[in-house]
Amino acid sequence: MEQQPNTLKYKHLGIYTQNENVVYMHEDCHVCISEGFEALTRIRISKASQTIVASLNIINSDMLLPNEIGLSDAAAQKLNITENDNLYVSHLEPIESLSHVRAKIYNQKLDYNAYHEIITDIVQGDYSNIHLSAFITACAGDRMDINEISFLTKAMIASGEQLNWDKNIVVDKHCIGGLPGNRTTPLVVAIMAAYGLTMPKTSSRAITSPAGTADTMEVLTNVTLSPEEIKAVVKKEGGCIVWGGTAQLSPADDVLIKIEKALDIDSEGQLIASVLSKKAAAGSTHVVIDIPVGETAKIRSMEMARKLKSHMETVGNAVGLNIKVVITDGTQPVGRGIGPALEAIDVLKVLKNEADAPIDLKERALLLAGELLELSGKVESGTGDQIAKQVLESGQALEKFIAICKAQGRFTLPVLSPFKIEIKAQKSGTLKRINNRKIAKLAKLSGAPQSKSAGVLLNVHLGEAIEENQLLYTLYAESKGELNYAMDYKNNHNDILTII
Amino acid sequence: MEQQPNTLKYKHLGIYTQNENVVYMHEDCHVCISEGFEALTRIRISKASQTIVASLNIINSDMLLPNEIGLSDAAAQKLNITENDNLYVSHLEPIESLSHVRAKIYNQKLDYNAYHEIITDIVQGDYSNIHLSAFITACAGDRMDINEISFLTKAMIASGEQLNWDKNIVVDKHCIGGLPGNRTTPLVVAIMAAYGLTMPKTSSRAITSPAGTADTMEVLTNVTLSPEEIKAVVKKEGGCIVWGGTAQLSPADDVLIKIEKALDIDSEGQLIASVLSKKAAAGSTHVVIDIPVGETAKIRSMEMARKLKSHMETVGNAVGLNIKVVITDGTQPVGRGIGPALEAIDVLKVLKNEADAPIDLKERALLLAGELLELSGKVESGTGDQIAKQVLESGQALEKFIAICKAQGRFTLPVLSPFKIEIKAQKSGTLKRINNRKIAKLAKLSGAPQSKSAGVLLNVHLGEAIEENQLLYTLYAESKGELNYAMDYKNNHNDILTII
Hints:
Two copies of one chain form a homodimer. By secondary structure, chain A is an alpha/beta fold. The first copy, chain A, folds into four domains: 7-91, Barwin-like endoglucanases (Beta Barrel), CATH 2.40.40.20; 98-158, Transferase, Pyrimidine Nucleoside Phosphorylase, Chain A, domain 3 (Up-down Bundle); 171-247 and 282-407, Pyrimidine Nucleoside Phosphorylase, Chain A, domain 2; 419-499, Pyrimidine nucleoside phosphorylase-like, C-terminal domain (Aldehyde Oxidoreductase, domain 3), CATH 3.90.1170. Chain A has helices at 30-35, 73-78, 98-105, 112-124, 129-139, 146-158, 185-194, 213-220, 227-237, 251-263, 268-281, 302-318, 340-351, 359-375, 384-393, 396-407, 436-445, 480-492, and strands at residues 7-10, 15-16, 22-26, 42-47, 50-59, 68-71, 86-91, 171-175, 199-203, 239-243, 286-293, 322-329, 337-338, 419-424, 429-434, 455-458, 465-466, 471-477, 497-499. In chain A, strands 1-6-3-5-4-7 form a six-stranded mixed β-barrel. In chain A, strands 13-16-18-14 form a four-stranded antiparallel beta sheet. In chain A, strands 8-11-12 form a three-stranded parallel beta sheet, with helices on both faces. In chain A, helix 17 runs antiparallel to helix 18. The radius of gyration of chain A is 25 Å and the shape is globular. Chains A and B meet through strand 2, helix 1, strand 5, helix 3 and helix 5 of A and strand 2, helix 1, strand 5, helix 3 and helix 5 of B. Chains A, B: Keywords: Glycosyltransferase, Transferase. Chains A, B: Residues 430-497 form the Pyrimidine nucleoside phosphorylase C-terminal domain.
């Protein structure tokens, strides 16, 4: 078939760039020359009715012929490409919604339509990392008022699939991160589903922490399920614990979270919109939000926590959710493990009522499950905690948890990594402080969450009397390089644990 | 020679990505696996004592062997690479100055040290586009106070070379952009140098406009000179008109300007720091700043202009410059040409005192040259304008201009492109309004400034009586595609010129 103008023949190059769309064209390519394309120009590439936007890299070797075009793996996948496909390339029409981003940079208030246009273009993949980072930054630091946060949340809900469970009550919970090891979600889902409530839980992967619930659950079962598969699991077992990304719920959130991760920020407006848009899109009706407060937690003061609680409740109501926000202790990690596999071990110990199960993780899960039972109206006020405890200690929750995992495709026991170093106390005293951020950083440097079995296994709690040479924690990694890298950090920071 | 751990053999791939550093490694590469590198991880790459930071792309084809490493052309050039060099790769240590960027995102004031650390890391190339965009955005929209703008300016001066001319008086001028065709700089330099003053002018390329002074001058002479070459030109002729980028003056500015261009913003703080850091680093002592004001100029109101004037003067004094800020008419383009070659033609016509030289461009250049003569103290107050006029009309300025161009390496006459379309009036009336932004956009879509001879040649001025079918302007492009693209825009915007 003869090539049309602006049409090039696809050649597979095998370049993996995560989610970033890159297009490769030869410097002598007639389209580049006639259209005036330069390296890093963002251009539109179409195959039949499918279209993506990609950044141009120019090839000046024999890797491509002048009439050929290459794509990064992610871009090729989005266009469903096969070798020798003809691709049509064209100028990217101006992205109109960037004028709203500029208005936001200049401190103007945006209305619903503006947020809707921005989020629609982001989901289409039209924004570069530069545009995304500017949008995130312009919305951070209290620059969105409460109405704008509601607009953003609604726009994010509208940007993806919305699930409908045909139930009057669909419960959910969320913890505003920052507390290493705080893996209550699998426990709460198991208790609620065992009690007969519907809890289709979609979780994120880690944003800036060593593990998100989805990362931890992936050790035990499959978390990447299609919306149809999720429906089947929930129909069968009343609950699920899956990654929210592939479910196409609030897809803008997944794009924005990557940028927030690169910046290592998590601003209030984006945080509220991220959490509540996922909940509403997942079809939840009754939601408990846990805000841990502590000097080194994400939320550092009661004042910030109360403000966030109030904003969460206002935006939650604006998007039609019944919300209860609980402020909890965030002064130290919860459970013993920090990192996907290590946290999965803690969860199983609590479910199995083992003697050495972390009591703090158990109590926190019961508190949240109790609040959720009460918010749902299914149990009397003041009885939630006790009912949750009974469901857990009777073994019903464990049974339900294993059933959910199996319905999601497998139930696998966690395995620890052979590369480990034990860190012991250099003096005796009392453990006065645990720096949540630094202990999380240590777990991240050791490879978590990408390396599932990497992380930190804590052996001590705040207020404990410590003997010299007592084991404080064990560092796990999947490679020697990562273990050394974490040790470098540990050796340069003597305030990860403070013993006085 | 045996390879050390973390050492890989360089292979040339021929991938051009402008200034972006990309590193390519095979998915089976032992370093990727042992270090836990993933696609888009930012890693450090060293050859002997030279080091850069690059984003990783993972190759899963036979383009590279597992023990080989590829680099984008820009990255290879920065490391001075030859085939088969051994390169050492390592984790990127945490970028400490990003904590200041986060503080700025959260609306905190930064001190000099914070700006200095940020700018140092930016010049080293440690920031990704995401980090750069967040820094730009966090500093935009009045988020820097006047002290912070001074700190940023000083940090930018300190980040690069600083020239010293061994003269008590070194003059300079700058126009706060936004006015298409306003190419007074070459005229002012020619007049000042002809009068015996020292004016070593370094200019930017276009940020968001169809041509910067450096783009226009590049049509007539070389503008990419080393600091040594610049010194030689100025010693010989008293003046130069070169691009500031390669001179390594305020190199952070060149990095930040690319991000501002992608965002299509130009915030007050960055603008002041950009302009004044270049002036101070270039060794200037007396500087005239021109701020054109108009509805569709960069500065839209007298109020904004007066605020900018006051901030410019404060920061200028803080960094040791004698400054005069002049507010001028910005309601329409200056001269006839918009685009590098078209503007170069206007400049030459004025210098040659040709009958059809654009009178508005000439008058504006004389105003600025007059102010600068007076600011320098070399002429009496009130006489600058007349003295400048005499230097220009006597032909001394032309002679000096040609001498400067030749000292910079060549004097080439501009050539126009064969691809052009004449735009005629569809009705008669009076030309009431010229939209500077839209006419600039038209010139950009036609290919300016990358295509030197592309742009718009205006045939009319504000207030002129227009006959039906009279020629309004001519569009020039270097390719048919670009001409069509500009025409599409023209056909969709009927308010580029308003005739009533």
